[in-house]
Amino acid sequence: MNILEKIVLEKRKQVNEEKQLFPTQLLEKSIHFSSKCVSMKKYLLREDKNGIIAEIKKKSPAKGLLHPNCNVEKLSIGYMQAGASALSVLTDKNFFGGSNADLAIARKFNYCPILRKDFVIDEYQIIEAKSIGADTILLIASILSKEEIASFTLLAQQLGMEVILEIHNESELEKICPNLNIIGVNNRNLETMSIDVSTSIQLANKIPREFLKISESGIESAETISTLKSFGYKGFLIGSHFMRHPQPQIACVELISEITKLKIKDYAA
Fold it and tell me: What does pTM read for this prediction?
């Protein structure tokens, strides 16, 4: 059993427990159900933004502990002050050290698009995402059928949220549904945990042009972002690169500064 299979197996147990503790009727009483979501797609297309989706990730199966005791309030605000376009918050507890409370805190202190990063395998999690203040959810093609992707996308959009479909290889392109908002290419192989940024380059021209594209994992330099932009990517989800830094928001500032300088050099050339 690979790590992804272990995560999904554990997630099914967790969701069944949460359904008993927090039924959907309770989730729907959240103040966020009447709140309008912030469009991540619109923010990633803004010319005054850089496309950085800064992630709060306390640990990972591949890297182990990154920032287990980070202050989510300060970090989320720090990311946005650094100039990030959006936030991504890991809410999986067992494998990534996150929680729903982390996203709720980020929502309380920031008006920006927030992605609820988790392993969605049940409609319950979509309602839960809305209840904690998420604007966008992630659907992972490798663990869902095309029918589930279409159904989950419809529910999320009915609740006002946007949907990112994450793919890892060419075979998963067939699971793309027409009503999706964003296609994300994860450069990490979730079975082996290896990373290859060329995955995004190889798949770029095979993704239908009508979809906004983002690249995820292994992005650590302005040069890489520049290359990915040349292949049509508008968003860049960065987690471990920032979270390995003693002050992740400073790492975010430094990368955005590099992007700005690179743009000046490109323009001068």
Answer: 0.95
